[in-house]
Amino acid sequence: MDVQPWVWATTIAVLLGVIAIDFLIITRRPHEPSMREAAIWVTIYVSLAIAFGIGLAATTDGHAMDFFTGWIVEYSMSMDNLFVFILILGSFAVPPHHRQRVLLVGIALALLFRGLFIAVGAAAVNAFAGVFYLFGAFLLYTAYQLIANSHDNTEEYRENAAIRLIRRILPTTDHYHDAKLTTRIDGKRHVTPMLLVMVAVGLTDVLFALDSIPAIFGITQEPYLVFTANAFALMGLRQLYFLIGGLLNKLVYLSHGLAVILGFIGAKLILHALHETTTLPIPQIPTTLSLAVILLTLTTTTIASLYKTRTTNNHTGTTAGTVDTAVRGADEDGDLDERVST
């Protein structure tokens, strides 16, 4: 895929323009968006991604399918990001009307660092096809970790080393001062929680890139497609947080679904590495099959999660109703203590 420099420049300029407009809107009117507003923006970003893919289909040969598959992979993995974002924003007690600003800055930082990761990854792939062994093994290990840790439901955010270092070397305040990153107290400059939470969100998304970048290289090795798929997945992440943040707890099998997807792509990467570095007749997995596996996995995961959540809630509601009825009956008979002890 021969991407001219002006195409790269135009793409990056448009992305920077969207971020600038977003930031200007948020700065002028800090607020927590309604479900309707978030849904409209998510629809706009999804429509832009679809339009971009259609444009690729009209101007390139077969690259649109690679883009759509990579974009869906990145978007599905972003769901895991959202759960961690919820924990971070809750841990730092970010005021609701400032959460958009925090997420936007974090996403902008993630785009910057992911661009660097993609450049390094593309250079490594072009220099040595054997790097796919490393990518594949890493994704298989990540898939195993997702399955092994799926039982750990501890909803707690632990500050990373960077945040602890900032707290150690710089004076910090426990209170927000509107949207200021620093403030002056008794003539001394202090770091506010706003700066700390922005760093935490940005670094967390960079860590997620360690999984997502190798995953999308398993779909396509075209740096332009890898970058744009990541960009479109990240650009709608802020609005997606406000749209489905409360529904994430219902996707109880999300980690299992992501593990299947990462495991599949990891195996695909290792097969590709064997095909490129040996003379063995190793088959290549087509992008259409990858897309089918990914969509089937996500659909199955969602349906199974919603069914599990509904069944659990119904069981809990029935149990609670039974207990409540027993308590009311005991109270009416005046022998509550006797029934409880029994």
Structure overview:
With 342 residues, the protein is mainly alpha-helical. The protein has one domain (5-301). It is 75% helix and 2% strand. It has 12 helices and 2 strands; from the N terminus they run ααααααββαααααα. The chain has helices at 5-28, 35-59, 63-91, 99-127, 131-148, 161-169, 193-217, 223-235, 237-244, 254-277, 287-333, 336-341, and strands at 182-185, 188-191. A two-stranded antiparallel sheet has the order 1-2. Strand 1 and strand 2 form a beta hairpin. The longest helix is centred in the last third of the chain and has 47 residues, at 287-333. The protein is globular. It starts with a helix and ends with a helix. The model is unreliable at 323-328 and 330-342 (pLDDT under 50).
Keywords:
342 residues; mainly alpha; globular
User: What spatial form do the alpha-carbon principal axes imply?
Assistant: globular
The whole-number mean of residue pLDDT values reads: 80
In terms of DSSP E residues, the strand content is under 5%
- The spatial strand order of the largest sheet comes to 1-2
**Total domain modules:** 1
How many helical elements? 12
Overall strand count = 2
Biggest sheet architecture: 2 strands, antiparallel
Distance between the ends: 75 Å
Helix content: over 70%
